[in-house]
Amino acid sequence: MTPKPKFFITLKNLDGEIIVVSLPTSKDFVPDSIKVEGCIEYPDKCISCFCFFKNTVICNGTGFKFIQDTFIYANSVDTYSLAKLTEHYSIKDIDYSIKGTLSDPYKTNLLNCLKNSHDLKRKIKKIL
Description:
Helices cover about 20% and strands about 30% of the residues. It has helices at about 80-90, 105-115, 120-125, and strands at about 10-15, 15-20, 40, 45-50, 60, 70-75, 75-80, 100. It has a three-stranded antiparallel sheet.
């Protein structure tokens, strides 16, 4: 069985410690009636996420897009050591590949969404 591709989005590099959105997921826990592209924040329903609609180009220059609606849930944002990531994934284009840089509107909207999320860890909110 071939493993599915895994993604992460780097939000901020802080002296060798990086904040990443680890493994955006196609797992959809958002009711269709409130699903929009971008920030979805409903504390009363315990929903705090950012949605990238499928087949929408999100990266500058590369044309990268997710093939399914993809979600970044605020409670999954965490910090990872750049040294450990480099140790585990050391060979570019074999262990990992860079899909591109988020276009400015997506990057700005994602950061604002996470900063205002009720579900983002306090230590990460301070760093962002």
